[in-house]
Every structure is written in structure tokens, then in C-alpha cells.
């Protein structure tokens, strides 16, 4: 696991025991302390979207999701968005605001790391779901052509979510990417979800909580395959 439960600081994943690796591990330990001081959900991810570090606010946001063998938000955020049946109960407008942008990032990662086994595993799981596979191969290119390549950017995007704390409830977050050079050199990136006050005039209309999906994934952004 990339972090410990019970409000503990994130625990960096172990690295080989070399002087350079020891320095990197020490940096990650200090960065974990910094991450924990942030009041908004914040997470450090690698190129596969495996969770390297996550703060308590991130864990709290997804505290109500049920167990899943491969798609827990504290293990791999991409898998959670695409495959966890509870994802839509936390991530508002799940398909258009979260799934499609994540699929766009996944496609870029596969192009850059074509031989990566972790990414290949995710691609196989996408292929096993006809709706998800159709969204990836056909719906995603159409969406990018229609909305534009900038639509897949995370940094700066305002997206709806449903926070388990009733003080936030159905609200929106500003996705902020803030990755220092040292993290970037390690192949990591940081994402923070800056929660927005409910009722701000600039926010889109609030969304209500969506029910838990009955299947692992079911995107409606593309038509279901004809039988």
C-alpha cells in the first residue's frame, strides 16, 4: 500500500539501497510531511497513476468507497476512475469530467511508455469491457476532436465531486498540478483537488449524488455495441 490508514503520513515506497536512492527516499519522507499539512486532497502519482503519496484529506474524500481488488483510489487513481463501481458516487459527471480526461492521459502515457507492463495491464482490462473499449478507441478521439486537446488537461480544470463531509457535499474542485523538479525527475507528478465553496457564482450547477454503478464500468458517452 502506498499509505497507511488511520490518519498516518503517507509512507514512500521503498527504493534500492544506494546513496542516491537514500536521498530520494529522504526527500519523499519530507515531502510526505509537507503533503500532510495541506488541507485539500493531494496525491503524488507515477506515470501509471500508481499512488506514491497521499494525504489524509485524499483518504477522507474516498473513505466511503467499497473494496475492490484492483481499483482502490489509494493504489491506482486511474484504475479507480475507470473501473471502481463507486467512482461515480464521489466524482461528479463521472464520464465526461473524469473518465474521458483520464483516458486521454492514459493514451498519452501508452504512447510514451509502450512497453510498460502496468499500462499494458490497464489496456487489457479496458479491452475486456466492450463499452470502455469503444470509448477508448472511438469515443475518445471523437471527444478530443470536438472539445479540443486542452480538454484532457487536468491542471486548472474545475470538476464536480461529492465529498462525504456534509459541510462540502456536492461541490466542485479545481484540479491543480504542482510538481517540483525533484519529483518530476523521479517520474512523479502531484495533483491537488482544491475544494470550492458551495454556491460560488462562477461554479456550474451543482450535481446530485449518482447511484452506485451496477457493473465495473459502463460509459454512455458512446453507443452500446449492437448485438
Quickly describe the structure:
The chain has 227 residues and is of the alpha+beta class. Helix content is 39%, strand content 12%. It is globular and about 45 Å long.
Tell me the number of helical segments per DSSP (H or I, 4 or more residues long).
8
Q: Helix- and strand-based class?
A: alpha+beta
Question: How much of the residues is beta strand, in percent?
Answer: 5-15%
State the end-to-end distance. 41 Å
Low-confidence stretches: 1-9, 201-218, 222-227
Average pLDDT metric? 83
Number of strands: 5
Radius of gyration over all CA atoms, rounded? 18 Å
Secondary-structure element pattern, one letter each: HEEHHHHHHEEHE
Helix content percent band: 25-40%
* Global morphology: globular
Profile the largest sheet. Answer: 5 strands, antiparallel
Biggest β-sheet: strands ordered side by side in the sheet? 2-1-5-4-3
What would you say this structure looks like, in words?
- 39% of the residues lie in helices and 12% in strands.
- It has helices at 19-36, 56-61, 77-83, 87-90, 94-112, 117-127, 130-147, 181-185; strands spanning 42-45, 51-54, 158-162, 170-177, 189-195.
- It has a 5-stranded antiparallel β-sheet with strand order 2-1-5-4-3.
- α5 crosses α7.
- The longest helix is centred in the middle third of the chain and has 19 residues, at 94-112.
- The N and C termini lie far apart (41 Å).
- The relative contact order is 0.15.
- Residues 1-9, 201-218 and 222-227 have low confidence and may be disordered.
